[in-house]
Fold this protein.
Amino acid sequence: MALGNSSFVVSEAGHVYSFGYNGNGILGLGNKLPHYMPTRIDVLDRVDRLISSTRVILKNDEPVETFIICATKKPGVA
């Protein structure tokens, strides 16, 4: 899945990896540095799929684009 200049992938094992620009820390890696190689997001594991949405909200009367990512667990996984 691509969100702007950042991308997310799910491996067959259910691990989530992110890479790209990482503006505002969108990659979920605990920093705001760009990552050009897929890097595993440790807190997301045994994921079946990712669902995304883009929203524009107002902050101080200026439009700000926000990204929402939801991860669904594989069936039978707590």
